Give the backbone structure.
Amino acid sequence: MKHFTRLTLGILALCAGCETTVVTTEEPLSAVVAGFLVAGENTLQIRLTSTIPYDTVENPAVYLADAQPVLTIASQSYPLTYTDSGYFELRGVPLTAGDSCQLYFTFGDQVVSAAAKVPPKPEGLTLSTSKVYMYRIEEGSFDIEALQANMEQDPVEISWSQPGDAWFVVSVQNTAAEIDWVSTLRRPGDSTLYTRLSEAEISSSLALQAGFELQQFGRYRVIVYRVNPEYAAMLLDTGGDGFTLEEPVTNIVNGKGLFTCLNSDTAYFEVIER
């Protein structure tokens, strides 16, 4: 899963993606876990794959469809169901803050396990504005005043409470059905809706520079995720997007990959034609 909001991960939803880990032919094969569980979601997804030898690198990912994993939430155990998408799923058991989660299954002659706790929900999420008004700049026109007014828009300030040393990741996405450019003069070469995923930081705010970043009309979804230290360590160590796993960060016993929990809050703002 590449999209963080599926980890709605919608998050980020943001729920998880995992690339097969390549090993040398001498290294024993290992189970690879990609589990990013978001509080409040009705469907929890975990992907289990296997490492593959280096000389078979062109082979597709080896999914552990017969692994029979069990997820324990607040001392209640639930067998996970394998789906055609390559994920094991649990439906109808949303996580809440403070829940302790354990995953375990057998791979070869070893029990693979991992544990994580659902962090508190981010508090005090506010946006400096709910509406950003931008002039539409059509191709063939050159309205200096309109261009300048757009560039001088105040930033959209996203802020939340910082309890001390908590890690946060912010996802911003234009939820419009199709792209509607503010300015065809400055249109980027791609044709994707605006998406931004911040780095993991011990922070309490993020600013979006409206005149430079918000070049599409539409309704934008802001998701602030509170993440556990192991997830932040993965982002900082690999420089990845948070949903593609490679070595070396892991919190899996007798395996590789990452098993972690997240909690989130959501807000919206609109970019509207002036």
Observations:
- Residues 1-20 have pLDDT under 50 and may be disordered.
